[in-house]
Amino acid sequence: MKGIEEQQGTVTAILSTALKLNEEKRKYTRIPLQAKVTIVIDDQTVEANLVNLSLNGALVTTDKLIEIDSMVVITILDTATSQDLTNVKAKVVRVMGNGVGLQFQ
Predict the structure, then answer these.
(1) 31-104: which CATH topology?
(2) How much is the pTM?
């Protein structure tokens, strides 16, 4: 039977490997960014907050329920420069509580 220290070393090694694999799987770096976002889904406009952004997608938070696989159009409102990023087509690929993962199309 393995000792406690050996077991802890094994668990640490497994977690470290899992984290490395997850990082390698991600193709694009996420940049933390706070901005207001509007999401148009069907004929509804939903207000949201940007959490982070990558070349492939974004993570936003909203109080509204948005279903996975929904196709949406988002606008990121940049109040600092008044240069909004508009009419970006995206697919909802993840919903976690009030967090919504979007993949740009």
Answers:
(1) Thrombin, subunit H (2.40.10)
(2) 0.73
